[in-house]
Structures are given as C-alpha cells and as structure tokens.
Amino acid sequence: MNTLRVSFLDLPAMHRELGPEFDDIWRRVTSSGQFIGGEFVDQFERDWAEYCGTRYCVGVSSGTAALELSLRVLEIGPGDEVIVPANTFIASAAAVASVGATPVFVDVDPATLLVSAQHIEAAITPRTAAVIAVHLYGQPANMDEIRRTATAAGIFVVEDAAQAHGATWRGSRAGSMSDIGCFSFYPGKNLGALGDAGAIVTNDYAIAEKVRSMSNHGRMREDPHRHEMLGGNHRLDGLQAAALSLKLRWLDIWNTKRERVADAYKASLAKFPIELVEIAGPARSSHHLFVMQTDERDRVRKQLASAGISTGIHYPIPCHRQAPFAQQRHSPLPVVERAAERVLSLPMSPGLGEAEVHYVIDALDRALDQLGTGERREP
Ligand SMILES: *Cc1c(COP(=O)(O)O)cnc(C)c1O
Fold it and tell me: Distance from the CA of 24 to the center of ligand 1, in angstroms?
C-alpha cells in the first residue's frame, strides 16, 4: 500500500524543467565576471519591481537582511516598539531586535491566522514606530484596514512578504502596499534562488537608495569611495539574480499550479472534521503553505509520515515563546497559542499531481478514522 512518497516540497522537480536554461545562466554569469551586483542584479531588480508593481527594487542577501535594512532606513532603533504578529517565522521579530527596537507581539485573526488591524490598534503606544504586516502562508493580511490604522497612528508599515510572492490584496501585489515590502528568495519560497537571496520593493526613491547604500557598506552611488553612513555587506550576487530572473518567468504558472493543488485539497477535505485556514474575499494567496488544523495534529502527522508523506508545522513554537523573547511582556495571545498546537502544513508543490493529492487525502482520511475523529463515509 505504501507505494508513493510525497515530499513536502519537490524543488528538484521544478528545476528539472529549467535544466538547460540553468546551464546557460551559469555560462553567462561566469563569463561576464559580474558576480556581485552588476547587470544580472540590475536586470532582476527591474524585473521584480515591474512584477510587484512598484517603482524600485533593491536586491539584498536574504529576507532577514531586507527586514533589518528596512527598519534601519526608517530609523527605527532603541526605544522604539514594532508590532509583530506572534505567528510568524522568527526572522520577522529577530529583525526588530537586531536594530535595537522592541518587538511587541500581537495575536492573530482566528480565521486567517494573520495579523489584523484590531490587534495592532490595541497594541499601539506612544513608542510604536511601525508594524510588520506578515503575509503568512501566502495570504496577504487585510492591508486596507492595516494601512488605515497605521496612517491614523502615524506609524510605518513594513510588509514581510517572504511567503507571498505574487499574492494580491484587491489586485495589488504583496509587498507593494506599504512603505517597504520585504522578500526572501530562500530556495523553498515560491520564488527561490539557488541559495540565500532577498529584496525590498518600494515606491520611495530615497528609501530605495538608502537600502542600496546600506546593503553595501554605506557606499554612495556618485562616489563609491565615500561612505556617508555605516551599513554592512548585504548584497545580492549575480548568479542568484540571474536564476531569479529565469525562475520569475515561471512564478505565475507555479502559483496557479499551487492554487489547483489547494483547490483539490479543499474540495476533498470539506467533509473532514478539521479546519482550514480561510482565505479572505479580497485576497489571492500564493499558496506557499497549505495549513489545516486539528486537535489530533501530532498523531495525524505521525500517521502521514508512516504513509511516506512529509508534512510541516508553521509554527510549533510561537515567537513570544522562543528563548530570546520569553522574558518580554505581551498581551494574551490565545489564538496563536492554540494554533501552535493544531496547525499542520500538508505537502505543497507546484508539481504535486492528482494521484499524490489523493494519496494524501486517503491517508488523512484513514488517520482521522483510526483516531476516532473521522466521519465514516459510505463505501
Ligand atoms: C523565510 C522568511 C523570512 C526570512 O527570510 P530569509 O531569506 O531566510 O532570511 C522572513 N519572514 C518570513 C515570514 C519567512 O517565511
């Protein structure tokens, strides 16, 4: 019976289609000598800004670097508070701490598990400088409300769109709806490089130039020997940029395939005694992760593993429970804490076929039945 193996994300399958083109990139970059910055980075920055519908894009070395540089150019630092949803990858909060500011963790919406204006509003103090709107699992947060709340309070909005390449809110791309949008191109993201990479997008020229300079030791464009500020080395390299420009041509196709997988899961899981993460009406998700919720999470996960199915948990330990933040005061976070015990991410790849999806559904059906929580259906 155990005939199939379903991996959580099948990157090699995505890359197989691109084999000869990867070879071509390798040749072009190695023969150009433009390894850090240069024409391939310039090209990808144009490509990604155009795709996101923003005026500027600056390539950087990772999503974490994008977040840190964003906070630094907004001059957020010691004494400032930055509101962060507790349900996110730790980088969203670590970036705040790394600039010397204090992350203030907030709870999330129970239907979408995303940060909401209501929670942000309740956490705003005179010290609040910004909010990090995390578009988790691929779904944009409610940016109409978040922007309204942030504007009224006079605070910045930084989007963490590391999981939301190509996702939209009312037709606007994730990353394009705030002061700065941050992306990670970690290999496992919807648009992934062949190593670490990231970018910021913005419509503000001054912000873009400052991020560019700070990512490169504070160098000035007009005079590369002059350093008007201190930065660091957070540059994007040419090989990653060239790979990203190539893979960007496939992003919409891959996201559509992910959507089909998500639709197939949703149709089959509707009768199961589990909950799914809801997608809000104005949102179009990039379906980075397909997250279900059940009280029997750990047991279901084990059963799926024994059927050869890899799953993930995003995230089993919420940020405010992680050691570096454990001493920090925060309001009660009941939704995040409950979700941490119940969320389970099913396999999600653009190349996931119908047979594999059905295999996962059948295994899930058996697992729930054996646990006595499944509804027995007619044979
Ligand atoms: C992946 C991720 C990051 C960090 O990106 P890196 O490129 O790994 O530094 C930040 N935030 C979220 C929500 C992520 O998923």
Answer: 29
